[in-house]
């Protein structure tokens, strides 16, 4: 019996750890599934609003003549809405990449020392540390907002009236604006 380690036979937390690890893993999967469902619902709504933007324009124009039908308008403008939906996805990705670029040094600093350590080491000047990031974020959001407003207010009516895709409409609108 001298080779036996009796400490290993003491009351163990092994079954509880296995169960809690399983519960933690299930929570992680559930959280991921909920996020995925929300993203899918958001994509569906983004697609619907992209097409209905053109259905709405059509209703404003055709509504006067009382010839407007939602189904026909949907069929007529589905390609334009799909083009606009693709633009919105790409613009959103570009915006997120911009955010990552802006906050990358901050994220890198936090990941190297940990969040609590980072906050404690910068507690006296955390606001002054964040000012450049917030200014860059404000500038990026302003530029992005101006571009998307320009697209919504000028390029989408160009798409509707000339029956072209979003890329061509943006190009035509910019060339008209700066010529």
User: Based on CA inertia axes, which overall geometry fits?
Assistant: flat
- Relative helix content: over 70%
> Helix and strand succession?
HHHHH
Contiguous low-pLDDT stretches (5 residues minimum) are: 1-7, 9-16
Question: What is the mean predicted local confidence, pLDDT?
Answer: 84
- Total DSSP helices: 5
Radius of gyration: 27 Å
State the distance separating the first and last CA atoms. 94 Å
Q: What structural class do the secondary elements suggest? A: mainly alpha
Biggest sheet statistics: none
Indicate the proportion of strand residues: under 5%
- E-strand count: 0
Question: How would you describe the overall organization of this protein?
Answer:
83% of the residues lie in helices and 0% in strands. With 179 residues, the chain is mainly α. Helix 2 packs antiparallel against helix 4 and helix 4 (126-162) crosses helix 5. Residues 1-7 and 9-16 have low confidence and may be disordered.
């Amino acid at each position: 019996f001298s080779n036996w380690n009796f400490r290993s036979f003491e009351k163990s937390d092994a079954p509880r750890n296995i169960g809690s690890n399983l519960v933690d893993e299930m929570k992680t999967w559930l959280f991921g599934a909920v996020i995925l469902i929300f993203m899918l619902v958001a994509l569906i709504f983004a697609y619907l609003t992209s097409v209905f933007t053109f259905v709405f324009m059509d209703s404003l124009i055709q509504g006067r003549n009382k010839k407007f039908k939602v189904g026909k308008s949907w069929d007529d403008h589905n390609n334009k809405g799909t083009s606009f939906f693709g633009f919105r996805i790409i613009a959103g990705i570009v915006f997120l990449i911009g955010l990552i670029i802006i906050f990358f040094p901050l994220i890198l600093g936090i990941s190297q020392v940990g969040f609590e350590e980072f906050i404690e080491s910068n507690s006296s000047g955390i606001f002054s540390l964040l000012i450049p990031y917030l200014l860059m974020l404000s500038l990026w959001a302003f530029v992005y907002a101006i571009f998307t407003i320009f697209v919504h207010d000028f390029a989408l009516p160009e798409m509707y009236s000339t029956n072209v895709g979003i890329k061509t409409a943006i190009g035509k609108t910019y060339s008209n604006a700066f010529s």
